[in-house]
Design brief:
By secondary structure, this protein is mainly β. It has a domain of about 80 residues. Helix content is about 15%, strand content about 45%. The chain has a six-stranded antiparallel beta barrel. The longest helix is centred in the C-terminal third of the chain and has 13 residues. The chain is globular.
């Protein structure tokens, strides 16, 4: 089956924390997780609870590849229970990401491109 994704993905496990963007939820402690795969346009990660499609998330990704955490605003595109039925995989589309500059998406794209070619 041909991959129709706009951005190539790499299967790497990076630390991830997320918060739902609502006044009440955002004030809570972040939920820790791990990425399943990542691209410069989206992330798939594990979650203990289901996250509704369309939910906006504030995400922080920590990778040994980059000098600091990647901060992102993302929209939940899909969420499905895993085969083991003990958690969920969540797919999000990145709306914005950065390290207080706009170059992070290009750096991510360059890194992912180097791993997929």
């Amino acid at each position: 089956m041909q991959d129709r994704r706009k951005f190539p993905r790499i299967d790497e496990t990076w630390e991830l924390e997320y918060r739902t963007i609502s006044a009440e939820e955002f004030k809570k402690n972040p939920i820790s997780s791990l990425t399943v795969n990542i691209s410069s346009g989206g992330i798939c990660f594990n979650a203990e609870k289901e996250i509704a499609k369309g939910t906006m998330l504030a995400i922080e990704v920590k990778s040994p590849i980059f000098p600091s955490s990647i901060i992102a605003l993302a929209e939940t595109i899909w969420c499905r229970e895993t085969e083991t039925k003990d958690n969920f995989e969540v797919g999000v589309s990145l709306w914005w990401s950065g390290w207080k500059d706009n170059g992070v998406q290009q750096i991510m794209e360059d890194y992912i491109s180097s791993k997929t070619h």
